[in-house]
Amino acid sequence: MRPNVHGARLIDVTDLVGRIATTESISGVWQLAADYYRPLGFQRLNYGLTRFRHDMSIGDPDDALFLTTLTDEYANLYFRSGFYERTPIYRWALLNTGCTTWRWVHDAFAEGRLPPDEAEALRVNARYGIFAGIAISFPETRVRTKGAMGLAADPGLDHDDVDAILAREGPGMLAVAHVTHLKIATLPAKYARRGLTARQREVLEWVADGKTTQDISVLLGISVGMVEKHLRLLREALNVETTAHAVAKAAILNLIFSRDEHGG
Questions:
Q1: What backbone phi and psi angles, to 5 degrees, belong to 148?
Q2: Going by C-beta distance under 8 Å and a sequence separation of 6 or more, which residues neighbour residue 113?
Q3: pLDDT tens sequence across 216-243
Q4: Cα–Cα 20 to 30 A to 19, which of 37, 140, 220, 242?
């Protein structure tokens, strides 16, 4: 039976946008967005954000933020195994800005116009019950930044259903998606291999303020050798060669001078 996605608007979008804009954690923002899209027929969401885009690549996946409401099994397949790179929607999102349904993907598949790896990606998604949906590729003010969201329609919904939902709820759906993306982009995230300890963040913030290792030693009441150890470990965590690069990368990823997920 298809979900009941018709009728009056289920959530006050204006109120929701205000709540998203004032939420102080990525997990909180993501939950609000998921709660909005669920009754519209989209329980399964994917979101990706990179600040290190290069040509047709998002850069090192460890520097990208991925969020999903799908199962752990699918998340491991989609994000960690690099499956997303083989999907036609990934290619579309890197090359375009705006919103599209997935109808054209299946039309291209039916006509034999998809490359073999993209055609196989559709077959894999079909095994997970992923068929119709919507993709949103966000406009960016920085050339190496790219964010996108995918909304997989609930089982039982087809392309015609998605078109009908988008025609009726499209402005609200896009408004929520855009404010969700803009808010997430300002918040510190937990990256797979890019985490810094509280002390490492503190040391790096002092470096960013122009302090020397001797200055930081005095300010924190630890030895110069311990300061240097923290700097070495945080460079390793960020996969950079120099402390100056560490400052730049941590700032881009919102890892310093920001509240963490717990408000610290």
A1: -150, 155
A2: none
A3: 999 999 999 999 999 999 999 888 899 9
A4: 140
Asked if residue 65 has pLDDT above 60, the reply is yes
Q: Are 60 and 215 in contact (CB under 8 A)?
A: no
Closest CA to 258 of 202, 215, 209, 211: 202
Question: Over pLDDT 70: what percentage of the chain?
Answer: 92
- Three-state DSSP state, 146: strand
Q: In this predicted structure, what is the pLDDT of residue 193?
A: 55
Three-state SS letters, 186-200: CCCCCCCCCCCCHHH
Higher pLDDT, 202 or 2: 202
Q: Which residues pair with 44 in a beta bridge?
A: 152
Q: Contact at 8 Å (CB) between 126 and 106?
A: no
Compute the distance between CA of residue 47 and CA of residue 50 in angstroms, rounded to an integer: 10
Buried b (16+ CB within 10 A) or exposed e, 87-109: bbbbebbbeeeebbbbeebbebb
Q: How far apart are CA 219 and CA 227, in angstroms?
A: 11
Position 9 scores a pLDDT of: 52
In terms of DSSP bridges, do strands 146-152 and 133-137 run parallel, antiparallel, or are they unpaired? antiparallel
* Residue range 176-186: mean pLDDT, rounded: 95
CA 210 to chain centre: 32
Q: Where are the alpha helices (DSSP H) in the chain?
A: 13-22, 26-37, 72-75, 88-95, 103-110, 116-127, 159-184, 198-208, 213-220, 224-238, 243-252
| Per-residue model confidence (pLDDT) at position 157 | 97
Residue tagged 């985490």 (tokens): 195
Which residue(s) pair with 48 in the sheet?
66, 148
